[in-house]
Hints:
By secondary structure, chain A is α/β, with parallel strands linked by helices. Helices cover 41% and strands 20% of the residues of chain A.
Amino acid sequence: xxxxxxxxxxxxxxxxxxxxxxxxxxxxxxxxxxxxxxxxxxxxxxxxxxxxxxxxxxxxxxxxxxxxxxxxxxxxxxxxxxxxxxxxxxxxxxxxxxxxxxxxxxxxxxxxxxxxxxxxxxxxxxxxxxxxxxxxxxxxxxxxxxxxxxxxxxxxxxxxxxxxxxxxxxxxxxxxxxxxxxxxxxxxxxxxxxxxxxxxxxxxxxxxxxxxxxxxxxxxxxxxxxxxxxxxxxxxxxxxxxxxxxxxxxxxxxxxxxxxxxxxxxxxxxxxxxxxxxxxxxxxxxxxxxxxxxxxxxxxxxxxxxxxxxxxxxxxxxxxxxxxxxxxxxxxxxxxxxxxxxxxxxxxxxxxxxxxxxxxxxxxxxxxxxxxxxxxxxxxxxxxxxxxxxxxxxxxxxxxxxxxxxxxxxxxxxxxxxxxxxxxxxxxxxxxxxxxxx
Amino acid sequence: xxxxxxxxxxxxxxxxxxxxxxxxxxxxxxxxxxxxxxxxxxxxxxxxxxxxxxxxxxxxxxxxxxxxxxxxxxxxxxxxxxxxxxxxxxxxxxxxxxxxxxxxxxxxxxxxxxxxxxxxxxxxxxxxxxxxxxxxxxxxxxxxxxxxxxxxxxxxxxxxxxxxxxxxxxxxxxxxxxxxxxxxxxxxxxxxxxxxxxxxxxxxxxxxxxxxxxxxxxxxxxxxxxxxxxxxxxxxxxxxxxxxxxxxxxxxxxxxxxxxxxxxxxxxxxxxxxxxxxxxxxxxxxxxxxxxxxxxxxxxxxxxxxxxxxxxxxxxxxxxxxxxxxxxxxxxxxxxxxxxxxxxxxxxxxxxxxxxxxxxxxxxxxxxxxxxxxxxxxxxxxxxxxxxxxxxxxxxxxxxxxxxxxxxxxxxxxxxxxxxxxxxxxxxxxxxxxxxxxxxxxxxxxxxxxxxxxxxxxxxxxxxxxxxxxxxxxxxxxxxxxxxxxxxxxxxxxxxxxxxxxxxxxxxxxxxxxxxxx
Lengths: 438, 518
């Protein structure tokens, strides 16, 4: 008799530890792949599920292996049909290799693919940017509230009275305090009437009438004292505010694309915009992005043009602000939209225009915007020189005035990718607390 | 009346299995296996598992207990991807060379399939494990499960003490040397898990008992003495080395100047596992052939005795023919010779030669053709051969014709392949001997040996690769592997490729020139 054992109920995930180890091992590769992807991909897709193929490097298991097609070897194959001894078969072209070589079986591992959820993508992406957990937590939050039924309360406004609940309470109270019923009174009244109607009432009847009258009076008094509905019976429907994603947001991306902005500057700007976009997308049901680029004149463009086309010319920053103002007036009334703006520039501007920018911001734009971030992209070598906020380009100096006046205006310099994070830290610290808003 | 008598003999009628049916089928199979096939096997332990668990078992190279390593996770992901996409079916069973012999059955199998699998694994493979000389010589079926238990907990303990990253570094390197971690000629020392465990435990406990944090605070006065200790240690080791050594992992374990004792122990564990699987690598055709032949014979006997129905037999045959399906070399499905087919065909052929030989068979196999005792002939072959010698002795011209085998030579310098032998009078010998060569691990594995290490001098380790027939190594994996060896050796490692016939140096590579891992 063999020993039969039913193992089906044993815990299943025996290899869970191994899989986690594998993921940890592959993590660096994944991170690199995601960063590449975000840099090269469209902004909008940055926080969708991603299928990431990972190359074998880092997860390979090398051993000493015979190189295919070297030296002399003789193999035995089945299914000969027409060959005779001494026949020669031309070597197949390199592209159409036979693939029957055992050592090429490792190729199958090339298609190792991970499907990462957007949470995982964001985690990996933020990790690279050194966002603290606190910030990640905020990102995941939602902002506006909608009332939701949540039991009953003793107080409230008359429109939310819960009739059913109120009657339920009053009924219980009436039974408990033995409030006389209408039928009871009617019975007594009928009997009284009948007795009173007798022509020649006996002494007993008169006695009975007296009792009945007294009883009726008592009952009437009780009914008066114990009301049908007492204020303590009344219940109101209770509503709790439930967080729901806020409605509409629009982000304006303003970028200087004049000749001085190179690939590096654009890459940094793009990373910045990706993050800002993610933030908005998580807070609001719908985020519109408006791309505005400018040289000496500004225009609204699509994403591809925004990042990849080169256009050169002088730099007049105020044109971008005016363009933004125009778009807001046309399509995004500020009472319906949360308006965010991010401006990236290398800080160059023609003389006298910076003052104009300040006045546009001061007079109109800052009143309309929820938040305005100015990011100046500088050379890494300059970052030392510009460490103090006092020194800077003409635009920087001009914007400092705006920053002093408006709490929802932030300005920072970025020299390398890891600098982007402080900007967001500021954003979260300064933005109205993610509690109730309207 | 006759019908009823027949149906009452059936072992089972439903296609769903249950434990009663299983044990009835088991007993019936055992009767045939013992009385008619004269099989001799370890006691059986049959375990039913789900497909998820089967994938788990797959990824840990088929062992029920295994230490944790990312590469097993990688295989799991890979295989479950294939499985989910439907590109790979799972094996119906998995069998472990242990005493008692553990067979895993998948719960999804039908009753017919379970019967087939029990005959295949619990009797076919089991008999082979117990009786083949390689398994007897190299593996210790009684001790392996306990040893794996020890290995698993030892490595888990190391991870706790030294951190998973440090353990992983050693395991990565050790795994890459697994093919070079077997003794091919020397008898391996007998495993005694209890002794092993006691030894390790004692050492650890001693370390823990004598550990005192105070020592760390002592001034480093006896500095001058320490190197002398190391020096004598090294010269002792140096004189103990025997060259050449082809078991690289053993060599590193014993003589590496940098490894700590727990790291040596891990190398030892990996080495023991590699050695345990060494016979399986050499007997794939025979092992599978033996199991397939066993299930085929037993199922047919069950059917003849009226113990299984026509429907069951049909299902069995369908599965059987899937298992032994051999596409031709020009078929897109072709992926090498199917060991099941080759083994099964050869054993059926031996059966035929024993019972109804032709003149040709009498000519080629005078010692057993027509002896009538196919069972005894097979039992003897199973016990005393490995793939290479089995093919060299038993592959008959009739089977070469049947499978239309031909041998094809590839010379790197020629723009063509040449057909060197086909299934004709001139070709039989050559086809047979080339096929045997292809199953000889001595020929298929690269010949790599540690030849020199100067422990007292620059500590450079020299490895020699003897190149046969001009077949070199793939450069990228070779360099990666050398880096791993350097990790274990701690100093420069160089490898030289020498042509086996001309003694010419074909290449020379050193970890010094490889640079850091990119």
